[in-house]
Amino acid sequence: MRSQPQLILASQSPRRKELLEQAGIEFAVRSRPVKEKRREGEAPVEYAMRLAREKAHAAWERLDEVTLGADTIVVLRDASFPDVAIGDVVLEKPEDEDDARSMLRMLAGREHVVITGICLRSAAGAIVDHAETRVQLAEMSDAEIDEYVASGEPMDKAGAYAIQGLASKFVERIEGSYSNVVGLPVELVYRYWKKMGG
Questions:
Q1: For residue 24, what are the domain limits?
Q2: Interval 164-196: pLDDT, tens
Q3: Which residue among 64, 71, 83, 98 is the active-site one?
Q4: Residues 6+ away with beta carbon under 8 Å from 178
Q5: 150 lies in some domain
Q6: Whole-structure pTM value
Q7: Which residues have CB under 8 Å from 96's CB, separation 6+?
Q8: Is residue 88 part of a domain?
Q9: Is-catalytic flag, 71?
Q10: What are 58-116's pLDDT values in tens digits?
């Protein structure tokens, strides 16, 4: 009987830690910095999966472990090309409060897609995949946006909002994985983790 590999979360995100804990998945944390910059012409899905792969590879050390890398982005797709990466606007973490306000104005009253790339890296290689969830936010007044930004919650979140936090009151509809919007598609991670002996 083979021994169970150790799962290493290659992220300092408290949300990802909490999601794994809530699911009863045992893990340790080890993350190393990776340059998060989208390449020219890189499709949003490819970008999220590349960063997840780089994070998992950067943290991997031992043959008996599996490192889990993840990266979440928010994408506004051009209404003329709903299924094609043309005119996409990729929203990551806001640089400052003005950037957060700008993102929230773009998202208010519109549907967007939350994409999380994941990578599970082991001695046998890497499994790379992604999850997509559609989210519709309600219209938001400038006063509501200002109040939300002043709370500080948007500042370390892709797309400048937290679906599990104060922004929950603005969420009209969600299609797909809820945990993906929080920052990690737990059901997808667990499926691959089990295949790898977890």
A1: 6-195
A2: 999 999 999 999 999 999 999 999 999 999 998
A3: 71
A4: 133, 163
A5: yes
A6: 0.90
A7: none
A8: yes
A9: yes
A10: 999 999 999 999 999 999 976 544 554 446 889 989 999 999 999 999 999 999 999 99
